[in-house]
Design goal:
Length: 404
C-alpha cells in the first residue's frame, strides 16, 4: 500500500485492522443455477464439466468459497434443485463448508402458468402456485435457511387481456396466504422486474410495487433488488437509499447489464454504479441504520460463454472490491462538501475512494483468512476444472435455463 494512501486513510481514522474486521463480516451468496449450463433463448453452450445436479453445484460452489472465503451460502431454485432428502443435502453442504441460502420458488415453467401464477384468474392455478411456495418454505426450514426469494413472471401481453386491478388484488391475496405460513425469522424477499416475459403489464414491475406489497404484508416481507431489472439509466443507488430508509431492503441479486436483464458478471460493465450502491449501504450503516446490517447479498447470473466457476470467482471479487472501496469513503469530508453545496468537492470524495487500488486490502484480507492471495490463479492451478470436465457427463439443455 502506498504511504500516500496510508496517510490519507489515517487522517480519516481508517485503519487496516478496522477495514479487515468489517470485510470479515461480508459475504455474498452464489446461485446454484450459475454453476449449470445456462444462456440465452438462442443457444445454451455447454461448458465441459458444468454441474448438472445439486451435488455437483455444491461441489463447485465449495471451490468458489475455498478461494474467495466470502461465499459460504448457496441459493437454490425449486424444482431445478429438488431433492428427496434435504437432511442429506444439508449435511453434504456442511461437509463442504457451505450452507443452503435463499430458496427460490419457480413459478414460471409449468404449463399451468401460461397466464400467470399468483395472479392467475383461475383460483386452482393460484392455489397450485401458493402450494409450491409453501413447499419451498418447508424446504427452507429443513435446510435452516431463512430466506424465500420470490420472482414472478406474471403479467399480460395485450391491453384488456386481464383486469389489472383484479390481478393486483389476487396477487395481494396470494401473498397474504404465503406470508401467513412464514415461520418466525424467515423473510419473504419480493423481487420486481419492469418487463419480460410479459410486455404490456407486469404484476411486480418496480421497487415501489414490491415495497407496497411488503408493507401490506408485514415486517417479514422485504424488497429484493436485482440489478438487471430496471429501465436504462435508473439510479439503483437511489432505490437502495429509499428502501434502507423504509427498513425494507431485503437483499440483492447482483449481476450487470448494458441493455436489459443481461445477467453478466457483476461489476463487469458498470463498476462505478456498483460502488455507488455500496456507498449508500455503508453510509447508512455508519449512521446506525438497522436495515443495512441484515441485507442478503446474492449473485444471480446466467453464464453462457464464460467458464462457470471462474465467472463466479470473478463476480465475488468484483463485489468485494466495490464494497471495500465504499468502506474507504471519507464520510466527514463528504458531508462537509454536501452541506457547503460543493458539488464537485462531494463527487471528488467518492472518486478518491473509488480510484483507490484496494487490491492490497483484499490481499491482507485473504492473508487473515489463510487463503491464497490470488483466488483465480489458485483455482486454475488446482486442476479442479479439468478434473470435473473429465469426470462429468454433459446433460443436454435446450433453452436459456437449466432444467428448461
Ligand atoms: C429472473 C429473476 C429471478 C430468477 C429468474 C430465473 O429474471 O432474476 O431472480 O430466478 O430470472
Ligand atoms: Mn433475479
Ligand atoms: Mn433477472
Amino acid at each position: 500500500m502506498s504511504s500516500e494512501i496510508e496517510n490519507r486513510l489515517q487522517e480519516q481514522d481508517v485503519t487496516l485492522d478496522g477495514v479487515i474486521a468489517v470485510m470479515q463480516q461480508f459475504s455474498v451468496e452464489t446461485p446454484s443455477w450459475g454453476y449449470g449450463d445456462s444462456g440465452t433463448r438462442f443457444k445454451v453452450f455447454h461448458w465441459p464439466g458444468a454441474a448438472s445436479n445439486l451435488r455437483e453445484k455444491l461441489a463447485d460452489a465449495a471451490q468458489v468459497q475455498k478461494v474467495t472465503g466470502i461465499c459460504p451460502g448457496v441459493a437454490i431454485h425449486i424444482p431445478w434443485d429438488k431433492e428427496d432428502d434435504w437432511q442429506t443435502v444439508k449435511a453434504y453442504a456442511g461437509q463442504l463448508g457451505l450452507r443452503i441460502g435463499a430458496v427460490n420458488p419457480n413459478l414460471f415453467q409449468d404449463d399451468a402458468y401460461r397466464l400467470g401464477s399468483l395472479c392467475h384468474y383461475d383460483k386452482q392455478v393460484r392455489q397450485r402456485a401458493i402450494a409450491h411456495v409453501l413447499e419451498c418454505i418447508l424446504i427452507a426450514q429443513a435446510v435452516d435457511s431463512n430466506v424465500i426469494s420470490l420472482w414472478l413472471a406474471d403479467g399480460t401481453n395485450y391491453p384488456g387481456q386481464d383486469d389489472l386491478r383484479r390481478r393486483r388484488s389476487r396477487l395481494l391475496d396470494s401473498l397474504q396466504t404465503i406470508y401467513a405460513a412464514l415461520p418466525t425469522g424467515m423473510r419473504l424477499l419480493i423481487e420486481y422486474k419492469f418487463f419480460e416475459p410479459s410486455f404490456y403489464s407486469t404484476d411486480l414491475p418496480d421497487w415501489g410495487t414490491s415495497l407496497l406489497m411488503a408493507q401490506k404484508l408485514g415486517p417479514q416481507a422485504e424488497v429484493l433488488v436485482d440489478m438487471g431489472h430496471h429501465p436504462q439509466g435508473t439510479s439503483i443507488a437511489q432505490i437502495v437509499a429509499q428502501l434502507l430508509d423504509e427498513d425494507r431492503l431485503g437483499g440483492f441479486h447482483f449481476n450487470d447489464r448494458r441493455y436489459a436483464d443481461d445477467d453478466l458478471i457483476v461489476g463487469s460493465q458498470n463498476p462505478f454504479d456498483l460502488f455507488c450502491i455500496f456507498n449508500e449501504i455503508v453510509g447508512a450503516e455508519v449512521e446506525g441504520n438497522a436495515n443495512a446490517g441484515r441485507i442478503a447479498y446474492m449473485i444471480d447470473q446466467s453464464h453462457n460463454i464464460e467458464p462457470k466457476i471462474e465467472a463466479m470467482i470473478q463476480s465475488a471479487i468484483n463485489v468485494q472490491t466495490a464494497y471495500t472501496k465504499a468502506l474507504l469513503v471519507d464520510r466527514t469530508a463528504l458531508r462537509e462538501a454536501q452541506e457547503a453545496g460543493d458539488v464537485l468537492g462531494a463527487y471528488r470524495v467518492l472518486q478518491a475512494a473509488y480510484e483507490t487500488d484496494v487490491r492490497p486490502w483484499l490481499s491482507e484480507f485473504r492473508m487473515h483468512q489463510g487463503i491464497d492471495l490470488d483466488p483465480m490463479t489458485a483455482f486454475r492451478a488446482s486442476g479442479y476444472a479439468e478434473r470435473v470436465a473429465r469426470e462429468r457427463t454433459a446433460v443436454a439443455t435446450s433453452s436459456g435455463y437449466p432444467g428448461a
